[in-house]
Amino acid sequence: MPLNSPTFDRIRDKVLSGQRLTGAEGEFLFQPEVDLHAIGELANLVRRRNSGDVVYYNINAHLNPTNVCIYRCPLCAYSCGPGDAKAYVMDRDEILSRGQEAVDAGATELHIVGGVHPEKPFDWYRDILRDFHETFPRLHLKAWTAVEIAWFASLTGRSYEAVLAEMIQAGLGSLPGGGAEVFHPDVRGRIAPRKADAETWLTVHRAAHRLGLRSNASMLYGHVETAAHRIDHLLRLRELQDETGGFQAFIPLAFHPEGTQLAHLKRPSGLVDLRVVAVSRLILDNFDHIKAYWISLGVGTAQVALAYGADDLDGTVRQERIHHDAGATSPQVLSVDQLCRLIREAGREPVERDTLYRRVARDGTT
Ligand code: SF4
After folding, report:
1. In terms of Cα–Cα distance, which of 4, 6, 7 is closest to 30?
2. Has residue 232 got a pLDDT over 80?
């Protein structure tokens, strides 16, 4: 679409003057005919306003304690039933050894999510955090998606607040953004029909923010959703952020169909990836950070996304299983040197952050 379209001109004027875009304007930007690079330029401008020349990364590790999950979402290649040959449940020693490995590698954060195991009691999940926190008190525990928190509430008959408060006591530091997928019921009913619905996901995050926890938000795109569904999702996040201010980063996640019940679909292209990053940056004007999660986007696209509105490459991420089980071909770990090189090649200054976006100083350097 020519760049002098009146709609695009109006959007550009609004972005330049810091005005909020409407959902209809966001849907317009998702049309493939609208020039991607012009959208990227606007998103990059917003990114620069927020973060200057800085691109954040952190040193982290993932822990997925079990892949047994009661929900078996069609979008998921990772989960399985308890009797499945690939089923695993980590024991305490294995879990703690992952923590030691993370600490030895200089990690400041452990990202803990996994399946919703039908036979594990609430205490099993809580004690994972408690054991970690007692053994590695300086490691920030970003743990349990809203789907898992909702499961714990139904297991125990307690409120989300009560479950979160007990997890905080055990060592929970913040909530990750997973489990959001696409909120709209027409899509959710096809890709994740049984797990917590949109209202539940948002209510858990609202409760977390009220208790002083920060959290992230994500969107899994590139399967059966339309532009209208993506915009509905982004607007619901923007609304909650207006209310609580508790979200830190938005993470667009590219769908990887391999090994899922939706394996007949194609993975979204690099151009779709960049458009989602850029439109997200423009619509989510109250989110400080947009993450180019290299595990999901691939390293090359994540690096390019730094020019399309992203200001965060996530972290070193060792031991990730969920996206790799779905065919992600990104490496299992990136070193700090590799992350910094990717950022410098993009013309930005790499800054190590902790989970709460505070600069991390190491040996007098940042
Ligand atoms: Fe379970 Fe999450 Fe996979 Fe759904 S996406 S089956 S909730 S692990």
Report:
1. 7
2. yes
What pTM was computed for the model?
0.95
**251 half-sphere exposure, CB direction, 13 A CA radius:** 24
Per-residue CA distances from 270 to 16, 104, 128 (Å): 26, 35, 37
Domain boundaries, the chain: 6-352
Distance 332 CA to ligand 1 centre (A): 20
Q: Round to whole Å and give the CA distance between 166 and 325.
A: 31
Question: What is the C-alpha separation between 181 and 306, in angstroms, rounded?
Answer: 23
Residues at CB less than 6 angstroms from ligand 1: 69, 71-73, 76, 78-79, 115-116, 147, 192, 195
User: For position 316, what pLDDT does the model report?
Assistant: 85
Tell me which residue of 77, 71, 69 sits closest to 262, measured CA to CA: 77
User: What is the CA(246)–ligand 1 centre distance, in A?
Assistant: 24
What does CATH list as the number for 6-352? 3.20.20.70
Query: To the nearest whole number, what is the mean pLDDT of the chain?
Result: 94
Angle between helices 160-170 and 198-210 (to 10 degrees): 50
CA distances from 291 to 23, 70, 137, 195, 349 (A): 21, 29, 26, 25, 16
CA 21 / ligand 1 centre spacing (Å): 33
The pLDDT of residue 364: 46
pLDDT in tens, 139-192: 999 999 999 999 999 999 999 999 999 999 999 999 999 999 999 999 999 999
Mean pLDDT of 274-279: 98
